[in-house]
Amino acid sequence: MQILNQLDDPTTPGDLNPEQILKSGEDRTQSSQVWTERFWLVLGGHIFFQTLRTAVQSGIFTHLSQCGGLTQTQIADRLGITEKSVRIILLGCTTLGLLRKVGKRYWNSPTAEALLVQGSADNIISFIEFEHHVVYKAMNSLYDATKATKNVGLKEFDGQEETLYQRLPHHPELEKIFQDAMEDISKQANLIFAKTVDLSQTTYLVDVGGGNGANVIALANKYPNLRASVFDFPSVCDIASAKIRSCSLSDRLGAIPGNCFIDEFPKNADCFLFAHFFTMWSEEKDRFLLKKCYDALPSGGSVILFNMMQTDNEDGPYSAAIGSPYFLTLATGESMLYTWNEYESWMQDIGFTKITRQELPRDHGIIRGVKP
Description:
Layout: H1 18-21, H2 25-43, H3 45-58, H4 60-67, E1 70-71, H5 72-79, H6 83-95, E2 99-102, E3 105-108, H7 110-115, H8 125-138, H9 142-148, H10 164-167, H11 172-196, E4 204-208, H12 214-222, E5 227-232, H13 234-246, E6 253-257, E7 271-275, H14 283-296, E8 302-308, H15 318-331, H16 340-350, E9 353-359, E10 364-370
Parallel strand pairs: 4-5, 4-7, 5-6, 7-8
Antiparallel strand pairs: 1-3, 2-3, 8-10, 9-10
């Protein structure tokens, strides 16, 4: 492991402009240290993730949120585990920047306070459990998946179906973990979407793959004249219909059972929404869905994509680099997080015009195209 301390700055002169080439030796040394630390994060990623989960499951972040700074001994007493065990977890979390140590006391970082404390409105604890129970073991098959271009990691879950989503019903506990994670993550992202998207000129929206109806409910609350429907599998539509009824919105919202790759799209919609949906499928299938929308829409109607996005020059962000192996190795075996430009070019090829992009927090974005 000593070799890691001798890593050179991977930036080559050919990648630098003249001003960068003249950087001082001290700056280059600092740059080298940054790259060395990044490499440690990659090499120990599996350990750092389990350290994070252990801290969350133990309640360290929640205790620190409730009580302010605590010493190592105080934390061990509260958790009922040895100081040595606590010290190891605290070391990992402090090294990662999730905790701050001042004197002998530990404090949550702003990130930990927002994302890792039970009861926090923005916490991602359910998603950490999804990563641990569902994604983690499947990622052992990433190399095989790249060779086969197939979701080889699906072998970890019983069933004959071709996607994770179809097999999860065989595993009720894992399905609940999955649904809880998707609901929490979607709830946070979809609130941003509902606040941002302009549907003032839309009369009837169809949310394809709309799940439990959270999207259409949020949009209906913002736009009192909007009608909308979820288009999804029959069992999912039952859930969406119940949620819509519980919100007393059945007069404007509904659910249409169907398979988006087989069944006709409604002809009376003037907007089709795909939220966190195109990331699951191949380019061919996504183009197919865009063409179905184009054929079903009236002139002036629009299609909206809402996803996490990959940058156009394919160098990030981290969310795209993490999410893409999941879709290949486990989810469907045919997809990834695509770039903004890819979605826009597909829309343009189909015939959509006035294509716009809107960047949102958390690496999300909205792309909209209009049928002329």
